[in-house]
Write a structure and sequence with these properties.
This protein is α/β, with parallel strands linked by helices. About 50% of the residues lie in helices and about 15% in strands. The strands form five sheets. A six-stranded mixed β-sheet has the order 7-11-10-14-8-9, sandwiched between helices. Strands 15-16-17-18-19-20 form a six-stranded antiparallel β-sheet, sandwiched between helices. The longest helix is centred in the C-terminal third of the chain and has 39 residues. The two termini are about 35 Å apart.
Length: about 800
């Protein structure tokens, strides 16, 4: 038998702010909010509904690629996806169920070490916890025990394999260069296969010192590399041809398998999700090769050979695991001449911090838990379910009397340990510079861990941590070293409860859609705001209680937010003082008398810490800026419309006598007509006559309004109409609306993105059956959307 298995390692590092459990807006990911959102739109979502086209570029099928491949998703990524992209999340879980039907009960999904720690470099307890958390997270989401666990960067040693086998894992996927030697089971002589010479087409048995066994799969290196870094994915035919060319005439079962970053399929290489879908369909329909997953192949073809690995090896570092602790020369290649001398001092600093926090956890932890390390291993149950019932069950099993009396303290200890592992996320060392966003992120987790350690032990480890980071040199002269990076980029990201309270006041003041009863992972109780307004000035003050749903901390604050002009904000919060009423009265009196600077001075005088706008979470900053920009846009639109209406008759007269049109007027006209067109397409029912009149003006003035901004609005309207049809595909009127809309868009020269509309209509037509699909309007709809019927 010839078998084919394609493995996708789908992973992004945790990006959430350590205090808010929310990802801050990332400008580099524009037009998306952050990189998780962007990669989901470009890769994770398209692979859940991958498009298969025929030679006429018509849509013939939609395939959930995940149901036909082997894959792993990082637990922290799935946690984000469950909250932010629930439809994609459900499609991934459903794919695993479908794959069990396809592959003799073996699901395509495998687990992953929890937050992508390089396990050979972790201490023994962290190795166990990372594996146990990864397995527990998988079981909670996929509803079954995983058969394997993906190792971050495939970094492996014998100790790691022992833990995997002990925890019930049946196999592991490694790079071919990680295999040292092989031999047929029962024979004595080993064959040296160093240099990636191992035969990847079979499973190997690894006999461990403990007496346990685990199977090893070494993926096809050249083809996996080619997929990631060449044009193999330029088409589905090319992809399938390359994979199918590797089999030989052997009568033995042959497994052709590859492993790459899952983001290759759509993010790194656009439309590669379609190439994957076409390849899978082609192999299933037209060849004698059977698509499989590792668990099924292993059950049908137990290992006949055994193998030994190179210790401390990985798939992305020629030097083993040095990329995550040394200046070994491995880097992204984007900054020629840059060094990575910062890697070792960074790891040394975090190792020191981890070991100091172990002292706290073991001494203080024994007061709170019967067995602190067993409690940490099972803390994943609370991470996955923060309900009061789950907390109660956890405390029944692990808590001492002190923990019952101080549940917040117990949870802060566990959170300290969670962040102590998050700070080892591999991406912090992978790239080129100590000030990179991934490295700053793990420093932020270290800062939060140190803060929690101080709360529970009274010992402030942060000053020594910063001192040790001075030994991590930056490639950027202005930044100097890791200590400067920490002070410049990490400290401003801290979000103590006081700052969360102040920030919440600004958010509620500037955005009416904000839930006043929720501030990130805190419940907001006893919220009693007072709002005062004057032209261009606002004062917002009152009291609130924040209750953390994670650590159960609860504190009562007074807060204030002062806005002077469009973008000058000053906010603050503190534990409610005895003279709070006098404070509020003083602020109100000054504001009522128009003494806004006096208000600001009083806030600075009474509150220990004040927060200007630029110190707040970027998403809150963006809300304020959007309000300002919306006002600017409205004012510009009003004024430009007046200019356009006054000058258009004059300009038309100039046109009749052949005079070139004034460029300032054309700028105004472009703005006004584009704005009016967007308003028409955003209306509940598009007035085609109005659009036609506007387009006549566009044509008369020789403008080109078909830019990305308007195209997005037109695409959204098409998607909405297609969705309306899909809700009731028997409604011929709904189908006709889509057809007519597309006809007019063709006349007007608009080229909307039809991807989502195609998907909605394709699935709707498929649900009707061939007999009902014979209606002329449905044929026209399919033809317009390039859907093969």
């Amino acid at each position: 038998m010839k078998y084919l298995c394609i493995h996708g390692h789908f992973y992004q590092p945790p990006r959430e702010n350590a205090w808010l459990d929310e990802i801050e807006i990332q400008e580099s990911a524009a037009p998306y909010h952050d990189w998780n959102s962007r990669i989901c739109a470009e890769c994770y979502s398209p692979n859940a509904l991958a498009r298969v086209l025929n030679d006429k570029q018509q849509l013939t099928d939609l395939i959930n690629n995940y149901a036909h491949i082997s894959f792993n998703f990082g637990p922290t990524l799935l946690s984000w996806m469950e909250k932010k992209e629930p439809e994609v999340y459900r499609a991934i879980l459903e794919a695993d169920k479908l794959s069990q039907q396809n592959f003799s009960g073996h699901g395509g999904a495998i687990a992953q070490a929890y937050n992508h720690v390089i396990l050979p470099l972790a201490n023994q307890r962290d190795k166990y916890t990372q594996v146990r958390w990864g397995i527990a997270d998988f079981k909670k989401r996929f509803g079954r025990m995983p058969e394997a666990l993906w190792l971050a960067e495939t970094a492996c040693n014998t100790d790691t394999l022992e833990i995997l086998a002990e925890c019930g894992m049946k196999f592991v996927v490694l790079a071919p260069g990680q295999c040292a030697k092989v031999r047929k089971i029962g024979e004595e002589k080993w064959q040296d296969v160093s240099g990636a010479k191992v035969d990847p087409k079979r499973a190997y048995q690894c006999n461990l010192p403990s007496g346990r066994r685990i199977a090893l799969f070494f993926y096809d290196g050249p083809i996996s590399q080619g997929i990631a870094f060449s044009d193999t994915l330029k088409s589905g035919e090319t992809f399938a041809s390359r994979l199918l060319s590797t089999y030989n005439s052997s009568s033995q079962a042959q497994l052709m398998h590859i492993a790459t970053d899952g983001e290759t399929y759509g993010h790194h290489q656009k439309f590669a999700d379609m190439a994957l879908a076409y390849c899978l369909k082609y192999v299933e329909d037209k060849t004698d090769v059977q698509i499989t997953v590792y668990g099924e192949f292993l059950a049908k073809n137990p290992p006949e050979y055994e193998a030994q690995i190179f210790e401390n090896s990985s798939w992305s570092c020629f030097h083993g695991v040095e990329r995550w602790r040394a200046d070994c020369g491995c880097n992204s290649g984007m900054h020629g001449g840059w060094h990575q001398k910062w890697r070792k001092p960074l790891r040394d600093a975090l190792d020191w911090l981890r070991d100091e926090m172990i002292k706290t956890y073991e001494t203080v932890g024994r007061q709170y838990f019967k067995d602190p390390w067993a409690a940490r291993d099972e803390y994943i149950d609370l991470i996955l379910d923060r309900s009061l019932d789950a907390q109660h069950q956890f405390f029944l099993k692990h808590a001492t009397e002190k923990a019952w009396n101080d549940r917040s303290g117990a949870l802060r200890l566990l959170e300290m340990q969670r962040f102590a592992m998050l700070m080892y996320t591999s991406c912090g060392w992978f790239f080129d510079e100590v000030s990179g966003i991934e490295t700053v992120q793990i420093m932020q987790y270290a800062a939060r861990a140190a803060e929690l350690n101080k709360q529970m032990s009274g010992v402030d480890l942060e000053p020594e941590l910063i001192k040790r980071l001075e030994a991590a040199p930056s490639n950027i002269r202005d930044l100097k070293n890791g200590a400067v990076v920490y002070q410049r980029f990490v400290l401003p990201q801290k979000m103590p409860l006081e700052k969360i309270a102040a920030q919440h006041a600004v958010a509620v003041l500037t955005d009416p859609t904000v839930n006043p009863a929720k501030a990130y992972d805190c419940e907001v109780k006893n919220f009693t705001p007072t709002s005062l307004s004057a032209p261009a000035n606002h004062l917002y003050y009152g009291e609130l209680t924040l209750y953390s749903l994670i650590t159960l901390e609860e504190r009562h604050f007074v807060f204030v937010a002062l806005q002077q002009g469009a973008t000058s904000f000053l906010s603050a919060a503190m534990d409610a003082p005895a003279d709070k009423d006098a404070l509020f009265n003083a602020l109100k009196t000054a504001f009522d008398k128009g003494r806004y600077d006096e208000c600001a001075a009083l806030i600075r005088q009474r509150f220990k810490e004040v927060y200007p706008l630029l110190s707040l979470f970027k998403d809150v900053q963006r809300k304020v800026i959007d309000n300002v920009m919306n006002k600017v846009y409205e004012d510009t639109d009003r004024q430009f419309t007046q200019i356009f209406e006054e000058q258009y008759p004059v300009v038309r007269g100039l046109q009749y006598i052949g005079t070139p049109l004034p460029k300032p007027f054309l700028t105004v006209a472009d703005f006004v007509l584009t704005s009016d067109l967007k308003a028409e397409f955003r209306a509940k029912d598009v007035d085609i006559n109005a659009v036609e009149e506007l387009m006549e003006d566009v044509k008369t003035l020789g403008l080109d309004v078909n830019g990305e901004d308007l195209r997005r609005v037109v695409s959204d309207k098409l998607t909405f109409l297609a969705f309306s049809f899909a809700r009731n595909p028997a409604d011929s009127a709904a189908a006709m609306k889509v057809v007519e809309f597309l006809n007019y868009m063709e006349i007007f020269g608009f080229t909307p993105d039809m991807t989502k509309a195609q998907e909605f209509v394709f699935l709707a037509l498929k649900s009707l059956g061939k007999e009902k699909m014979s209606k002329d309007v449905l044929k026209a709809l399919a033809r317009k959307l390039q859907i093969a019927m």
